[in-house]
């Protein structure tokens, strides 16, 4: 009987180990104090730490002031993708928004990431962002993927 239970436990742990697994570089992006009208776009990195393709089926913001963009292409094992989150920085005040990420991860089919900060007219001027060559390359690649998906979505919307 003990052998049977041990075999079932071993099989169960192997089955879970051979699945797609979603992980994030961070689950909260802190904007800090930013000026109204400043760039509200930030990126979360999603990595598939499993050994089967991970699919992000939906990324859903908690309100209309937050707009996510993501690729629906499968994320292969040990590979990463970006979720671009935009926040409308026109309205002054503190914000704390959640974004639900739905995937085919059997354990975490619904994950939650957050953005928070404060839109303040008296915030200091943002320092220019200096990207390393690798970061620039990744940002350009992410932009191309998002632009390609936006074109695809626009085509589908105009056909309907």
What report would you give on this structure?
The protein is α+β, with helices and mostly antiparallel strands and 160 residues long. It is 27% helix and 36% strand. The protein contains 2 helices and 8 strands. The chain has helices at 2-17, 133-159, and strands at residues 22-24, 28-34, 41-48, 56-61, 66-70, 80-87, 93-103, 110-119. The strands form 2 sheets. It has a 4-stranded antiparallel β-sheet, covered by helices on one side. A 4-stranded mixed β-sheet has the order 2-8-7-4, with no helix packed on it. Strand 7 and strand 8 form a beta hairpin. The model has no long low-confidence stretch (mean pLDDT 85).
Mean pLDDT figure = 85
What fraction, in percent, of the residue positions are helical? 25-40%
In quaternary terms, these chains amount to single chain
* Most strands sheet: 4 strands, antiparallel
The class by helix and strand makeup works out as: alpha+beta
Biggest sheet strand order reads 1-3-6-5
Q: How large a portion of the residues is in β-strands, by DSSP E?
A: 35-45%
Dominant shape? globular
């Amino acid at each position: 009987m003990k052998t049977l239970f041990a075999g079932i436990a071993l099989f169960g742990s192997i089955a879970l180990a051979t699945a797609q697994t979603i992980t994030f570089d961070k689950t909260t992006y802190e904007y800090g104090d930013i000026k109204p009208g400043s760039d509200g776009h930030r990126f979360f990195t999603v990595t598939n730490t499993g050994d089967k393709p991970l699919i992000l089926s939906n990324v859903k913001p908690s309100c209309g002031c937050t707009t996510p963009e993501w690729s629906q292409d499968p994320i292969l094992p040990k590979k990463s993708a970006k979720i671009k989150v935009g926040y409308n920085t026109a309205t002054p005040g503190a914000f704390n928004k959640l974004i639900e990420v739905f995937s085919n991860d059997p354990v975490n089919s619904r994950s939650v990431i957050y953005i928070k900060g404060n839109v303040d007219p008296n915030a200091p001027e943002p320092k220019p962002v200096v990207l390393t060559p690798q970061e620039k390359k990744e940002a350009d690649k992410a932009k191309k993927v998002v632009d390609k998906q936006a074109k695809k979505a626009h085509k589908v919307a105009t056909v309907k």
